[in-house]
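Hi, here's the filled form for the chain we discussed.

Project: internal
Contact: R.S.
Residues: 451
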Amino acid sequence: MAVSQSANVLEKAMGHVEGGVTEQNMTNPDRDREKYGDPSGEKMKALVWNGKNSVEVVETHKPKIIEDRDVILKVTGSTICGSDLHLYHGAVIQLQKGDILGHEFCGRVDSVGPGIKNLKPGDRVVASFQIACGDCMYCQKKLSSQCERTNTNKVENIMYGGRTAGMFGYSHFTGGFAGGQAEYARVPYGDVNLLPLPDDVPDEKGLYLSDVLSTSWNCVVDTGVKEGDVVAIWGAGPIGQMCAEMSFMRGAKRVIVIDGGPAAWRLDLVKSKTPKVETLNYTDLPKGETVTSMLKEMEHGGPDVALECAAGEYAKGIGHKIELALGLETDTSEIINEMITSVKSYGRCGITGVYVGFTNHFNIGGLMERGIRLIGNGQAPVHLYWKDLLKMIQDGSLDSSIMLSHRVNINEMDTLYQKFDARADNLQKVFVQTRFSDPPAPGTPALTSWK
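And the returned structure, exactly as it came back:
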């Protein structure tokens, strides 16, 4: 937390990078009601961050249009993501108390700015988790997650040698935009960052074009999964589950999913939805065996491809736990090292789980000597994939409902964070409804309540 507070102070002192084209550091309309709150005075429910491991559903003001290409959405569906847990834990820097979280959401258009010509009130849409301008070098290539103009954060620019696009509900480190775990959301450049949803795609499927489907597809495609590959996936959450499904879609011969500890139940879930998957529980290995040794026993030389769908904040060994606690590293290298030692020589390792800073004890020798390709998949460029993925949903070749386990009301989202963090109640992917949501689509989960 001290690091995050220091980063906020540093950013304020240094100022921002030039070239921003949209209002930033507006993470809650109540930070300046006159400037950001709707003149009607209407209130909304929203999930805000209050500090490490503390979130709360509060009443705040509905946002208003402040720029010509803004769209205000009535949110009809949002969700919680493993990436949200990094915010919950305070692992992502530059969060501030009262920030509205949530980067995956869909809804109906409530109102549009005068510059919006392709959308009108009442249209059903899904938002990309990143905010793209549509015009810069990266946006012209549909590499929307790297937009040069929607995030002027200087700390990120110094740390990474460049900046990602602005992102909804993901701290001031990524621009400081209010998120979609709320009843209303402001979408800058709404003509670029909203995709219309057809009538044959319900919210319970269309919502996940916002992030998880695009992120999973990017992980598989960017790491180069191809016909005949053996693929190992670290993490059996929604991203890992969809990467398994998509690896088979790309022609993989075998897919092995690795998880364990309090999340070991997810291996059985993934196996039940995609029976061809093989599983490996790292907390239930035979004596003297490791993940690497087991993978090499299961496949001569190890898998061809390794996909990291977990994240860097979850240390297993005592050394990394101490270093993380003391701030000597921000991310553990344990999973990445396992990937490097597990794959065949000249194998490919893709990193999609979130890593935010620096790591120690990285096996660079194994990487170099065996010719391992280590690929940072980056924040997925949603705009590059979402239209094609929508067509796959429509023609039935992609079934996003296999990961959907629960439906909850936004009123209980603070409880959802606690349970999701604890890997409790077999929560995999959740649909969060608001007062604007339609009734559950046929074949989707009924409402769960913990009250």
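Let me know if anything looks off before we file it.
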